[in-house]
Specification:
With 283 residues, the protein is of the alpha+beta class. It has ten helices and seven strands. The strands form two sheets. Strands 6-5-4-3-7 form a five-stranded antiparallel sheet. Strands 1-2 form a two-stranded antiparallel sheet. The termini are far apart.
């Protein structure tokens, strides 16, 4: 069989791609993925159903992605062993199979890293909320790292000149998205300083406005509170970072809620107390 690695089929560098489609590498990926599943099953049995659904969804996505990468890699190597591989149709099939396998393999690396980030956060915060913004930032860094490496090593893209020539565009984008970026960096600051945690009851005061509720989530743009009347309050991180915040349940201390009732003076106080106690027993 002629050395078909010298061919570039439809701009696809087959010789470089096949370096990442070895049996040893796929076995390692499957072992790491299965190890993550075992950690989930052994050490995270007591987490909430919402977290179970979160991890199951990520494990299922990882399994599908890694399975697709494995099948395309098997097709890549199978086409190389077929008789007449040096003909153009087989070259194209093998090249595209390798490209698809490399793409799904790169995604699998990102999903594996993301899975372990969530496993670490869930293990560390078993009974408390997880800073989702931190997990999203880590996932973004994984994407940039993996695909930058693939683009540079496999396809020969020069990342440094692109970054250098995009400085002007970065300034323009920064000015256009300054409010969004302000909320993003404010959210990162809140995650690092941790003036409150997910699940805490807080009161936020900014100028003449005041919001009270339980912290539900902090993402890249805003912080979500569940109010006393079960209403969802969304506060941009940029506003939250410049607000006065009172944390009622700091370091897991018990909080207290009060409610004022205004009733006509002619009502019997004892009857009112009995009605209130009856209502409390139904809560």
């Amino acid at each position: 069989m002629p050395d078909s690695d010298q061919f570039w089929v439809s701009w696809i560098p087959t010789a470089r791609i096949k370096v990442f489609l070895t049996l040893d590498l796929f076995v390692l990926l499957w072992v790491v993925a299965i190890a993550g599943f075992i950690i989930y099953r052994l050490f995270l049995r007591s987490i909430s159903e919402k977290r179970h659904r979160n991890l199951r969804r990520r494990i299922a996505r990882l399994t599908i992605c890694l399975g697709a990468a494995t099948l395309w890699a098997a097709a890549f190597w199978a086409f190389r062993e077929l008789p007449g591989f040096d003909t153009q149709p087989w070259l194209k099939l093998s090249a595209y199979s390798g490209l698809f396998s490399l793409f799904f393999e790169s995604l699998s690396l990102v999903w594996i890293a993301q899975l372990y980030v969530y496993l670490f956060l869930f293990l560390k915060h078993t009974q408390r909320g997880v800073p989702r913004l931190l997990a999203n930032i880590c996932t973004l860094l994984f994407f940039l790292t993996v695909f930058s490496f693939v683009g540079t090593y496999v396809f020969g893209f020069k990342i440094a000149p692109v970054l250098a020539t995009s400085a002007v565009f970065s300034v323009i984008i920064g000015l256009a998205l300054q409010d969004t970026l302000g909320s993003l960096f404010a959210g990162l600051s809140l995650q690092l300083e941790q003036p409150f945690r997910i699940g805490d009851w807080v009161e936020v005061q900014n100028g003449g406005q005041k919001w009270s509720g339980q912290i539900q989530e902090v993402n890249w743009r805003a912080t979500f509170l569940l109010g006393f009347s079960d209403e969802l309050i969304v506060i941009p991180n940029k506003i939250l970072a410049t607000s006065q915040i009172v944390v009622f349940t700091y370091e897991a201390r018990p909080g207290r809620r009060s409610q004022a009732f205004r009733l006509p003076a002619e009502n019997d106080p004892e009857a009112v107390k009995r009605a209130l106690y009856a209502g409390l027993r139904e809560v």
